[in-house]
Structure formats: C-alpha cells, structure tokens
Amino acid sequence: MGLSCKICFESASSLGTSHARITPCGHVFCEPCAVTWFRSEAACPVCRHCVEGLSSLIPLYDQDAGLQSSPFESGDDNFVDLFGDVTANGTHSGVEKQYRDSSSLTARTPPTDCTTPDAARASEARSSSERESEGGQRRGVDDEDVQVRFVLGKVAERWQQVMVERAKLKVQVACLDKAKQDLLVQLQRLTEENMALREALNSRSWPTARRKPLQSTIMDVNKHHDHWEARRAGDANSNSCSRNGDVDTSLLQRFSFTEPPHMGWEVGPMKAFPKPPEKVLERLQASKWELFHTFAMHSGPVHGIAVNPSGNLVATASWDHVCKVYDVRLEEEVAVLSGHDHGLYAVKFSPSKRNVVGTVSSDRTCRLWNAENGECLCVLEGHTDEVNGLAFKVGTHFLATASDDMTSKIWDAETGVGVSDLKGHRHAVYGVCFQPQGHLVATASFDLTAKLWDPRTSESIHTFSGHLEDVIGVDFDSTGNMLATGSDDKTCRVWDLRTGNVLEVLEEHGGEVKRVVFSPFSRLLATTCGDTTVRLFDTATFQCQHILSSHSDHVFDVAWSPTADFLVTASHDHLWKLWLPKTPPIGYTFGSSRFSHL
C-alpha cells in the first residue's frame, strides 16, 4: 500500500517484521512508533484526537505484507473496525463474523463416507460448492479491504502534501523573521547616524564642505554689478518682452540700486546693529508685549499680513480670495482687494510707493493694487504653479515672487515685465526676500534648503543646508550679516553670511516654524509657529524674550510697524491681532480712539 508513518515518515509496514496501525481518526503509524507513542499518550500526535490506548489502533491489510495483525490474536478489549461495529464483548461484527461463519461452515459439515463412487462424487461436489462459497466470501472481504486501503492512501497522500506545505510556510516565516531582525538592526544604525548628524548640524563648529569661500563669491557678485553698470548704455536698445513671464534681458542692466554696493563681506567681527532712536529702543526692550485688539475680518484662514511704511495701514491676505486694508488710526477698513480666483498666500507693501501693495495667490499670479482705492494696477503672469511669496526691493521698482513651480522670478513692478528667473531648487519655493544693503536675493524651498542668488546672472552663489523638513520663511537682518530661515522641522536657523555657517539653531518651538521676520534695527527676531504662538528672540543672545499666545490655530505670518510701536499677527483661526509693547509709545495720549497713540 505504500503508506508512511506520520511520526517517522518511513514505510508503515514491513513484510514479516512490522505491522501498520491506523487510529480511529485515520492516521497511519508503524508499529514501533505506535507502541512508543501510545504507551504514554492518549491523543493522536497529528490531530490530537483522543485515542484510548494502543488497543484502539486498527491493523491494516497490505497486499505486500499480508494481514498486518489479527485482532483476535490481541489481548485488547475493543477494536474499532472500518467495516463494522465493535460488539459489547469486544468481538468484531464485520470481518470477524465472516471468518467465524467460514470456520463454522467447515465445522458443521459431517464426515462422509467416501468408499462408494457415488458418495465420493457427492462429497467432491459438496467440497467444491463449499470452496466456491468460501472463495466468494473471501473475495467480498478482499474487495472491501481494497476500497478502504485506497481511501486511506488518498487521505495519507493529501496529509503529506499538507505537511510539506506547512513546512514550506514555516521556512518562509523564518526567513521573514530574519529579514525583520535585519531591518530592525539597519533602522537602529540609521537612527544613530541621524542623531549624530543632527548633533553635528546643531553644532556651531560644524565643518563646512570644501568650496569657494562665500566672501570671495560675494566680491565676485559686486564685480558683476559694476560690469552691468558699465554696459547700461550699450544695451539700451534691446527688445523688451510682454507680460507673459518671459525674461527681458534688456532690463538686467537696470537691476542696479541707488545705495552704494555693500562692502561688509570681509571675514571679521560681526557688524554691530545700527542704534535705533531712544523711544524705538525702549519698545524693542519692553518687558512684555500685550494683546491690544483682535480683528475678525475674513471668512477663511489669514495667511499673510503686512504694515505699510507709514505705519497706519495693515493689509491681510486670506484664503477667502481677498485682501483687506485696515487703517489702524482711523479704525476703519479702507479697501477690499478682490480679483484673485483662488486663495491668497502673502501680501507686501512697496517700500518705494507707499500706496502700492502686492498679493500672490494659488491662481498662479501676482497682483499689484492701489491700497487706498482697491484698484488693480497690474497682473504679473508667468508662473506655472501656485505663487507663495513676494518681496519688494528697497529703493527700486523691482519685486520677486516664489512659486510651487520651483522657481523665483524677478519683475519690473512698473512695467509688469519679467527680469530674471532663478532656477535651481528641486522642490517648491515658498519664501523670498531681498538683501536690504546689497543686491542679493534669498529663497526658501521645500527641498530643505535656502539659497542666495545673484539676480543679474540668475546664478545661485550659495546653498544653506541643515534643515530636516520644508523651509518656509526667510529674512535678512538690516546689516546684511545674518539670514534667518524657518522650517517645518520646528526650528529657526540663523546663518552667518560672512562664512555661510549656522550661527544659532532656535529649537524652543512646539510646532512647525513658518515665517520669520527681523524687527526694525534687527534687535528682535519674530518667528510664527504651528503651536499657535509667536516668539520674539533677542538677536544679541538668541534667547527667547517673549511668547505671544492668543490665537487658536497656526500663526502663519507676522509684521512689524516701522517704529516698532506695534506688531500684527495672522492666523489660520481667521483672525489677525495687534500687539503693543508694555512701554508708553511715542505720542501716547488718552483719547477716545483706541489707536490715537499710533
């Protein structure tokens, strides 16, 4: 029959030496394994079915080995038979009855006299008939036995297949466990490397890569500046372009500034901040900043906020598609700037034309407005994705925009013509600003870096790396010594523009850092945060001096008044707030107006 023992997986029967046994639940074992197992166990080792000792095992008939065992030769009390029932006294009601009937038939046949020919013939006929009857009975038993053996063989074959599949699955599970352990080890190693890298990045003495010194690069930029000045007359007749965003190279020569070139790039002591007027200094050194008023003017998150150079107008940009202009002295809304097709991301006042304000939107455009009457003066089109930020250049009519299309563009605000495209970031550009003393542009990007650019050549002259998440905010200090960046990694980094190294990492924030803005005279640095607060840091010590807490959602933008007599904050809670230093401001009077002192 070729059945295998379910314990040793060897042949369950061997001619003349070993006999196969089967449990009532249908599992086959060789005799040695069966004796060894069921001597102390009362359950089948395969399916754990209850087995009442060795006596419950059924012997199997095998065509090769013959009758494996006779239940009548055993001293067992009961036998379970596949072909019949077990009687109460332990006898077999199926095969045993057939054998008993066969024996009884022979026993009941009386002896005959075979001396006469007729008697001999009759005896021979009876014997032949009895042999035929007995042979028929044996054939019936054999047929039933063959059917049972066939079924058992199929069951055993399928069971062996299941066991093989189970073994394969166990091997796969073991391989997966090993792979899991390897991944855990690799994760631990990478975590340790990451922690070491973070410590190195946060260290002031972190070594910079070997590259051209930033001081030398800045001096080269100044040389380019002189070069373009010399070529101004020669390129006066170049062709200009339309407002479709194409760069007008003829305007590159006009990208010069009225102030003298910044010459403070030599490596040496940090330049001191210019001394502010006494009253302004008192405000910047105030012991506390207090909430003065909350404005609910928008139906969507307020994403950008700005104060005009005169200090009386506050403009707010919201996701409700409009920008609103509020006069804090008159205590009234003076204009609603409506025209964008989608939400607004940022707003800035022009430092040169005090009634001009710019807005950028997810509709891929930048618009310039008359802040007094709400008239749209110009639509700057050219970006191929959402526009996130903008900045005006002091003393000029140039402005810069930052977009999700991975570029920053320089525009002539008077003509609406594109002047330069700054390409080099590998992800969306979110923040942009001009160097107040000099002619560099800084950008902040979702590629985790900030870059310095020469807009006349559209070349990146330095990349600031160190943030671990998207870089959102960027701002120069008033001296040109420092650049601040804010990131979703919950830090603000302050960079030394003389060397390109990080000066300080401000880690006190409880959420993502959005925009960062230096105060007038750069004595304080304001950071907006996803933890609903604004923090003010002393730029001399980089210690947090004040925490402004009143909003109920992300604070995304902050702006200072020109004389630091107030600051304003914009939040995703649909509100903007006005804060005052706890020091009597200039011209303070107790009048009927809440803002009579501003």
TrEMBL record:
Domain annotation RING-type: ranges: 5-48
GO biological process, one term: mRNA splicing, via spliceosome
Bias type Basic and acidic residues, positions: 121-141
Start and stop residues of the WD repeats: 295-336, 337-379, 380-421, 422-463, 464-505, 506-547, 548-579
Coiled coil residues, start to end: 173-200
A UniProt-annotated Pfam family: zf-RING_2
PROSITE patterns according to UniProt: WD_REPEATS_1, WD_REPEATS_2, WD_REPEATS_REGION, ZF_RING_1, ZF_RING_2
SUPFAM superfamilies per UniProt: RING/U-box, WD40 repeat-like
Recorded GO MF terms: U4 snRNA binding; U6 snRNA binding; zinc ion binding
Gene Ontology cellular component terms for the protein in this record: U4/U6 x U5 tri-snRNP complex
Annotated segments matching region Disordered: 93-141
Compositional bias of kind Low complexity: 106-120
Keyword field: Coiled coil, Metal-binding, Repeat, WD repeat, Zinc, Zinc-finger
Protein name listed in UniProt: RING-type domain-containing protein
Organism: Adiantum capillus-veneris (Maidenhair fern)
